[in-house]
């Protein structure tokens, strides 16, 4: 059953709000980072008040995501299914990673990828309004 276009647009708008909120902050961090360091990658953590709620709505609870990867893997304690879901705008991609273990355990994690000029940024939520950023040229 195809997804209703208005629902899809509403979900993409939630992601766009997260992107707009975080982009200005990331530009500020990048202005303080040495260009040479970006070749190897730079990691940083920061607390952004108010982003936690936007992140939850635009990334974690965003129901419109396309399946981009699935794989069944064997592990020493049984098989598990790995799946990746993605929701994208022009400069941002939100990803949800889900692993379902044969024991019934389910693990979920999220990441936001942004393109800032010639620099790629990965954003992950640590806890609450604290986020980890990784930049690489």
What structural class is derived from the secondary structure elements?
alpha+beta
Please write the string of helix (H) and strand (E) elements.
Answer: HHEHEEEEEE
> What does the overall shape look like?
globular
Low-confidence stretches: none
Estimate percent helicity.
Answer: 25-40%
Mean pLDDT: 89
Distance between the termini: 40 Å
**Proportion of residues in β-strands:** over 45%
Count of domain modules? 1
Largest sheet: 7 strands, antiparallel
Molecular structure report:
- The protein has 137 residues and is α+β, with helices and mostly antiparallel strands.
- The protein has one domain (5-136).
- The chain is 31% helix and 47% strand.
- Strands 1-7-6-5-4-3-2 form a seven-stranded antiparallel sheet.
- Strand 5 and strand 6 (119-127) form a beta hairpin.
- Helix 1 (5-31) crosses helix 3 (51-60).
- The chain starts with a helix and ends with a strand.
Question: What is the element layout, followed by pairings?
Answer:
Elements: H1 5-31, H2 35-40, E1 42-47, H3 51-60, E2 66-75, E3 78-88, E4 92-101, E5 106-116, E6 119-127, E7 130-136
